[in-house]
């Protein structure tokens, strides 16, 4: 399978710890979708999500990762009770115009909350991963301009900042 990875899944080295066959294909865009922080996290913050858009110019940038089909259950639990995410089929385009049929994680409706913000360390991590993946500068600026809040748990914040090299 091919996964369109955005946000935290763009760290292929980290992803490969769960899915050894994971190999980066390259940078790609997902047309007709918007990037948003609206997935409810257990720590009372929001995490990244992509949602379909009616805007003609809407696009989410990320990377394509090729994964052996037999490793799918290493990173995706389809149980409707324990998993707030679903995989949906999408078409992505690389810089050279090649179309890839891929799958993308999206939040299930019950997991969406528009009243939460991402924590500062998570927001910074997403920007760092986008820069490391060499996503378009204008797109990175869009994400950087999104609202976030300081994590009130100072110990967790310090651990995450250290872990992610922020």
Please tell me about this protein's structure.
The structure is a single chain. The chain has helices spanning 12-18, 120-132, 137-144, 154-163; strands at 2-5, 23-31, 33-40, 46-52, 59-66, 85-94, 99-107. By secondary structure, it is α+β, with helices and mostly antiparallel strands. It has one domain (2-163): Hypothetical upf0131 protein ytfp. It has a five-stranded mixed barrel with strand order 1-5-2-6-7. It has a two-stranded antiparallel sheet with strand order 3-4. Strand 6 and strand 7 (99-107) form a beta hairpin. The protein is globular, with a radius of gyration of 15 Å. It comes from Mucilaginibacter mallensis. This is AIG2-like family protein. InterPro entries: GGCT-like, GGCT-like_sf.
Report the sheet with the most strands, covering strand number, pairing sense and barrel closure.
5 strands, mixed, barrel
Count of helix runs: 4
Strand order of the largest sheet: 1-5-2-6-7
Named CATH topology:
Hypothetical upf0131 protein ytfp
- Computed structural class: alpha+beta
Order of helices and strands: EHEEEEEEHHH
Oligomer: single chain
Chain-averaged pLDDT: 92
| Broad shape | globular
Number of domains: 1
Q: How big is the Rg?
A: 15 Å
CATH class: Alpha Beta
- CATH-wise, what's the superfamily? Gamma-glutamyl cyclotransferase-like
Low-confidence stretches: none
Question: Distance between the terminal alpha carbons, to the nearest Å?
Answer: 32 Å
CATH architecture: Roll
Q: Let me know the number of strands.
A: 7
Helix content: 10-25%
Strand-residue fraction? 25-35%
Organism: Mucilaginibacter mallensis
Protein name: AIG2-like family protein
